[in-house]
Specification:
One of its GO terms (molecular function) is beta-glucosidase activity. Keywords: Glycosidase, Hydrolase. Belongs to the glycosyl hydrolase 1 family. Helices cover about 40% and strands about 15% of the residues. It has about 450 residues and is α/β, with parallel strands linked by helices. The chain has one domain (about 10-225, about 285-295, about 325-450): Glycosidases (TIM Barrel), CATH 3.20.20. The strands form 4 sheets. The protein has an 8-stranded parallel β-barrel, surrounded by 4 helices. A 3-stranded mixed sheet has the order 6-8-9, with helices on one face. The chain has a two-stranded antiparallel ribbon with strand order 10-11. The longest helix has 24 residues, at about 185-205. The structure holds 6-O-phosphono-beta-D-glucopyranose (BG6). 6-O-phosphono-beta-D-glucopyranose binds near residues 15 and 328. 6-O-phosphono-beta-D-glucopyranose (BG6) binds near residues 163, 219, 292, 357 and 407.
């Protein structure tokens, strides 16, 4: 079995919205509540964001289970709409809930990493214009200030955004997130607002001299050209600038790739910005990085071009001989974790980093249930083992990686996919909220016990 060093964190991640649902305190409406109200048929099996693992009621038992597995760290998050349901007034019950919840992790010696924004946009903020609105950004910063001051002494790692651009790509040029538009120009303006909000949150954190660390969790689904052709290489470079390294670098140290500036100008979609804002972005300096990795992006040049923005000229294609997760349709490429380890070492000054999400989503896991009622998820064990081996290789090559978190600790509701793809080490029966360890939980426990 794989051996990781004693001080290497092995844990799991989740998010507030995907585990809390409406929960035990008041919470303001989210964009996903509106989306579900308008189009329930778009959600897998008609399951909306209210039906989750209901962790605000079950957290003591759940944390006991995390402890049993041996997770030494867990990432979840605060819900902005729970702490400030209308964006203005503080919800005191929510403040107390997060104290109790965090304390329970600490009592169990589990390091708790907290995200401030994980796709859970309050509806009022969306109605003001979302991240394009400077008023929304200021309200977000006030929420961050409250959280840093209130919980700063208990939390060692704060994450500003999880997969910052996913809601932008999925909401403004895709149809998975609200408002399900198709407007590259708006997507770019939203993305810029997120970079600014992140930079301002990091700046505030440093000004407040909070004695912990701040970073971002970026989904770095490593870029490769699909072929050796000159076209695919150029497309891959542009794709990387827009989707992978480009935004990651902006959030790492405010470095804006000239390819982004040039191509936005070419398509006349440069977002509104001021020189003061650009200065704030350029001063960004995070303390650590979280990386979510699920699959590689092999970029192929399009023949039929829509030509609204640079990304219209390319798409992601999976090679015919690649290994695929048949349940989710994503390519399985564990070597990507080694590539990321080396890239961080070389390109990001070997910043302390960890794998914040990596895992395997599977449909209808019921079919893998054994006679004792346990899900025998050998496919997940294989996925974990191959990916973690590649990460270990990166670690041995000197990459400054301090941990690995599987997505997810427990089966989570997911955006429009609801419970289609289950990822948890712990199964949730939505009929009665009972929990059961999957086989992978025992494998993970052994792996953790095997640290030396
Ligand atoms: C990650 C997100 O991108 O993927 C999670 O950070 C999400 O929030 C996970 O649940 C899995 O997504 P899906 O759509 O396969 O359930």
């Amino acid at each position: 079995m794989l051996k990781f060093p004693k001080n290497f964190h092995i844990g799991a991640s989740m998010s507030a919205m995907q585990t809390e649902g409406k929960g035990i305190t008041e919470i303001g409406d989210l964009t996903f509540d509106a989306y579900f109200k308008e189009n329930p048929e778009l959600f897998y099996h008609g399951v909306g964001p209210d039906l989750t693992s209901d962790i605000t009621r079950h957290y003591k038992d759940d944390i006991e289970k995390f402890k049993y597995i041996g997770l030494d760290s867990v990432r979840t998050g605060f819900s902005w709409a729970r702490l400030f349901p209308d964006g203005i007034n503080l919800n005191k019950e929510a403040v107390k809930f997060y104290h109790d919840y965090i304390d329970e992790y600490l009592k169990n010696d589990i390091e708790i990493i907290m995200t401030l924004f994980h796709f859970d946009m309050p509806l009022w903020a969306h109605e003001l214009g979302g991240w394009e609105s400077r008023e929304v950004i200021e309200k977000f910063i006030s929420y961050c200030e409250f959280v840093f001051k209130e919980y700063g002494s208990k939390i060692n790692y704060f994450v500003t955004f999880n997969e910052p651009l996913v809601p932008v790509f999925e909401g403004y040029v895709g149809k998975m997130h609200y408002p399900a538009k198709d407007s590259p120009k708006e997507a770019v303006a939203q993305a810029y607002g997120i970079f600014l909000a992140h930079a301002k949150a990091v700046k505030l954190f440093k000004e407040l001299k909070i004695d912990s660390k701040i970073g971002v969790v970026y989904n770095w689904n490593f870029t490769f050209p699909f072929s050796d052709s000159a076209e695919d290489k150029i497309s891959a470079e542009i794709y990387d600038a827009y989707v992978n390294r480009g935004p990651l670098n902006i959030m790492y140290n405010g470095n804006i790739n000239p390819i982004i500036i040039k191509t936005l100008e070419e398509y006349n979609i440069t977002p509104f910005h001021t020189s003061e804002e650009i200065e704030i972005i350029k001063q960004t300096e995070i303390d650590f990085l979280g990386v979510n990795y699920y699959f590689p992006c092999r970029v192929k040049t399009n023949e039929n071009v829509k030509n609204r923005w640079a990304l219209d000229q390319m798409h992601i294609e999976i090679p015919a001989d690649a290994k695929i997760n048949p349940f989710r349709g994503w390519e399985i490429y564990p070597e990507g974790l080694y590539d990321i380890s080396i890239a961080i070492k070389k390109e990001l000054n070997n910043i302390p980093w960890y794998i914040a999400e990596n895992g395997m989503g599977v449909e209808n896991e019921d079919r893998f249930r054994n006679e004792n009622g346990q899900i025998d998820d050998d496919y997940r064990i294989e996925f974990l083992e191959t990916h973690m081996s590649e990460l270990k290789r990166g670690l041995d090559a000197g990459s400054n990686c301090f941990g690995y978190h599987i997505w997810a600790a427990i089966d989570c509701w997911s955006f429009r996919n609801a419970y289609k793809n289950r990822y948890g080490l712990i199964e949730v029966d939505l009929k009665d909220q009972s929990r059961k360890f999957k086989k992978s939980a025992y494998w993970y426990k052994e792996l953790i016990e095997n640290k030396e």
